[in-house]
Amino acid sequence: EYAQLIKNPNYISNKENQINQTEQLYESIYNAYIYNDFQQCYQSSQKMINAGLSDKLLQKVEFFKAVCGGKLKGLDSLEMNLKKYIALYPKSELKDKANEIILSINKIRTQKLDTVSQPEASASVSFTFEPNAMHYFIVISPDDPKVINIIKNKIDAFNQSYYSNEQFSITSILFAPSKQTVMVKSFGNIEKAKQYYNLFTNDEETFNNFPKDVFEFYLISDENYKTLIQAKAIELYKQFFEKHYKANGKS
User: Which residues pair with 93 in a beta bridge?
Assistant: First the structure.
């Protein structure tokens, strides 16, 4: 501050003007949000983010951008935007608000499912329980490069702490238009995979940093993984996983 003041006598007044402009732009974003002008809110939010902000203000503006972007594109985009937001800013004061909106979206979907029959395509998809087959540990995640990098770094740190003598591969592929799978491979059989899963999900330093309503964690055999990727039948596999891998409360 002192150096800037010496170099530029107008530094204080310039800084005050910049703060006033930032406050005015934020107020316009907030008003656009309140009056449901989602297009204006989204565009102004992007403009403000590009200008550079403090962490606290950035989290607020990113929230407006996530909600308004979702409102413009539909429920699926709204849900995914909010899940990305929670993943990127797990300590944000707006995290609870984001979760409330996600819960409301799920209620809307549940009401629709009560009146609409389930697709018959899943009837042709089946998974096979093979305890001795090669297994993988996978995370279903929002399709966002920042989020994926966070996951890979946390898994890598976990592996270095608990499996420093093992050579695991961590890869990710697009799973659906809005999701990716991050895979840790491989485990020779189900028992070794279970040991990894239980240790990972019980390690507070690692697992508690993953918002539970954003990510899904599974063990899966090689053949079932191929079926999952081809059929995109995540809900069907979730039921299979609960029955064969978590029947006793733990994997």
Answer: none
